[in-house]
UniProtKB/TrEMBL annotation:
Residues 8-202 form the CobB/CobQ-like glutamine amidotransferase domain. This is Lipid II isoglutaminyl synthase (glutamine-hydrolyzing) subunit GatD. CDD domains: GATase1_CobQ. Pathway: Cell wall biogenesis; peptidoglycan biosynthesis. Forms a heterodimer with MurT.
Amino acid sequence: MGNNYEINIVHLYPDLLNLYGDRGNIACMEKRLKWRGIDAKVHMCTNQDSSIDLKAADIIFVGGGSDREQEIVCSLLLEKKEELKAYAENGGVLVAVCGGYQLLGKYYKTANTKIEGLGILDIYTDAGDTRLISNVVLECEKFDQPIVGFENHAGRTYIGENHTPLGKVKFGNGNTGDSGYEGVIYKNVIATYLHGPLLPKNPQLCDYILECALKRKYDDFDGLKPLDDELENKANKYIADKYVR
Ligand SMILES: NC(=O)CC[C@H](N)C(=O)O
């Protein structure tokens, strides 16, 4: 199954935004590539790094966190605002969970302050007076399996008309608690409130993200081969052993 495909995954600020084991999303993407003979290189960009090298990025991931950590990360990412916007506009694959999701918009208003966003998505997040905490089940027409995870956020995220929600809420709260929708897909940006970690729980969504990156990077890429059942079960056990404590 060997091939010379290689995917570079940039994990932004896992030292600050890694709520509820969101780093498990990186392990899942890495493994699901390697199990198909595709090399995955993970570059972690932490608060100690003086600069972020996005040029080689095929997938960028940013996880969730508390308001305080979000403020720190946003001030760091605003230095790269134009480059990140150009990356997303040019079809770069960007996966953002919860706090990371909120930072992609115009602003994130917390109970105490207003954090300027990266302006990558036509969304904004207002502070809620309660936290939206629930298991979540979404219906997404891209997949025949529901998308599942859990949410814990005070922010209420409002999305612009030219953005497609990730899914219709069948159980849980979603973007605002009453819109009936959750998350956003815009070009190859997939943003959601769902922790879990998200991708090990939703292998079809993970493979969709990997295919977006591979198709964008390699003209001759003709799709990911499905994993056999044994490997799919092994994938679930690997994540459970490594990340579910
Ligand atoms: N789970 C998170 O990442 C939380 C995001 C943000 N701090 C909020 O409360 O809405």
